[in-house]
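User: Lipase, Streptomyces dubilierae:
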Amino acid sequence: MKPTGTGRAVRRYAVLVAALLSVVPACGQPPAPAPGAAATSRPDPPAPPALPGPTGARPVGLRVLELRDTSRRDPWDPSRSRELMVSLWYPARHSTERAARYVTPRESELILRAQRIKGVPADLLSRVRVHASRDAPPAAVSGPGLPLVVLSPGFSLPRTSLTALAEDLASRGYAVAAVDHAYEAAAVSRPDGRVTGCRACHGSPDGRRVAATRAVDLSYVRRQLLGRPGTADGRLPRLDPARVAAVGHSMGGAAAFEALRTDPGFAAGADLDGTFHSAGTSRVDRPFLLLGADAHGRPGADPTWERVWQRLSGWRRWYSVTGAQHASFTDYGLLGERLGHPAPGTAREAEDALRITRRLIAAFLDDRLRGVVARDPDDVARHDERIRRHQPRQRP
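Assistant: Predicted structure for Lipase:
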């Protein structure tokens, strides 16, 4: 069975990146002077775009880890074990460490090449400004440890596409691990110098296979981070094994549901506008949130959402965001908007859509993982006219 969402995600991302990068000359070069203007009066080029600042009170640190699951062969390269690059954001002490980088120049170059974008600076995407400090020491943690959120990006998108959400959650007291599923993104840098591409993007892979493989990835990352030796010497924050959530965008949302369905170590999960691809029919009795775009997240738009809704026997919520599109839950819609060229497939109010995403996910996690009653997602929805809550009827 070929998925209905995987191939569309690849095409949708290609259009999105092309539109985003169509503004590069304005970003990387000064505009041409007006007729008759002196050459010396040309203004300096504008500053690179920045992701929105975190809304929490704590500084954010970032460490990049490579994890290897030697018990599995990679489905896209059976000659190798499954290799996962992970970005771990966390509350940090105030630090003078260097600022983190959004992507490397080489990753930027390969993303542009994969999308056949020519005539633009190859390092454009590496100029996006973020707010975390690389390798900053973790802040002191009291109690059993920080709650952990494991993030899975959309198919063909890198883990960095969820940076704005990750930085915000980390500033609010969460450890956040975003996973690059091997050979499912246009460019992923590895410590040995390799930069791998998206082998899985060729053809139309079975969505159930992709979601199931990713779910195993998320479970592996959860176990590895909880047992990571760096927590003993202060290089990594201490984590609470009882408070772990899986959150994903697009195919990553399908993976988050599969992770909850197959791994009792996840206490909660959320899907950001992803079609579900499930290989099983078991029920999920832990909290799960569905957050969709305008055209996709309404009842009747995607039958997989109604099927999954019937299988959620614990706390559950279904919201959609008026005016939002598929990319509104990632960094890319916002970056296109801030460059003055909203990309096709994103909401015109991209900054507002990302703000809603960060507020709703934070409220959901605060409520379900931390028991903070004052931060209920329903309260966020009641006070924002763009958020619609849906309550499909339960089948008899």
